[in-house]
Amino acid sequence: MRMLALFCLVSLASSVSRAETVGATAPPASTITWWGHAAFIIRTSNAVIAVDPWLDNPKAPKTPWPDKLDAILITHGHNDHVGNAVALAKKTGAIVVGSYELVSALGIDPAKISPMNPGGTLTVKNTVIFMTPAVHSSSLDGKYAGAAVGYVIHTPNGTIYHAGDTDAFGDMALIAERYRPTVALLPIGGRFTMDADGATLAARLLKVPTVVPMHYGTLPMLPGTLASFRTAMASLPSVKVLDLAIGTPTKL
User: Fold this and answer.
1) What is the value of pTM for the model shown?
2) d(CA 89, CA 59)
């Protein structure tokens, strides 16, 4: 009798589990939109996040800026990454995230800034944001603007790593181990960041299935090309190179 009762309980639990699985619905797809250069808009099921929002760069789409933003992430203080962050923050009421020195120098209401340092974590609605190191300089109006950083953005549909301006560095392997990104946004322009070969090494260290090239073709001093990156990435045939169309939302 005890065995029969146990069997019935296990069967009931299994039936409930199957019913919950059948009745469950997947979260709405998150999307990522490239705005040219290193600027992206990421939309999850209930959060909208901008990264390095230079939204009037030479390659930017001729579409309106977002009316709604929950957070603006800035990787470092150079003008091509701070971009239109201040105007966007005033327009949307979004919090502005970056190194302490940088966000404190933007002249934004202190209640609307959220300073971080590498290793820090911030939750914005259903999205978890981690700050990571980057290998680059950072200044704002000629003054030191804290460390240059990257971000790992964990959404319900996948985990995005925005490397910021950087070269490949060994601790990208730790980023892979700790955060397990599924998509890496990697600069390929060269001169001020890693080039195609460096970005290919970064993809190998990060162990990501998908890479998105960025920070190229915007300015004359960025000689890197998509063609050169595809050639370099031929050494990693299992990794998909996703060439985002500027201004077009892409599902994760």
Assistant:
1) 0.90
2) 22
What sign does the CA torsion over 63, 64, 65, 67 have?
Answer: negative
What order do you get walking across the sheet with 71-73 strand by strand? 113-116, 95-99, 71-73, 48-51, 40-43, 31-34, 250-251
Three-point CA angle 29, 32, 168, nearest 5°: 125
Does residue 109 lie within any of the structural domains? yes
Q: What token pair was written down for 28?
A: 């709405």
> What is the C-alpha to C-alpha distance for residues 194 and 20, in angstroms, rounded to an integer?
47
Answer whether residue 194 is part of any domain. yes
The answer to whether residue 150 sits within a structural domain is yes
- Nearest CA-CA partner of 198 in 211, 208, 188: 188
Q: Is 121 exposed, middle or buried (0-12, 13-18, 19+ CB in 10 A)?
A: exposed
- For the stretch 198-217, pLDDT in tens is 999 999 999 999 999 999 99
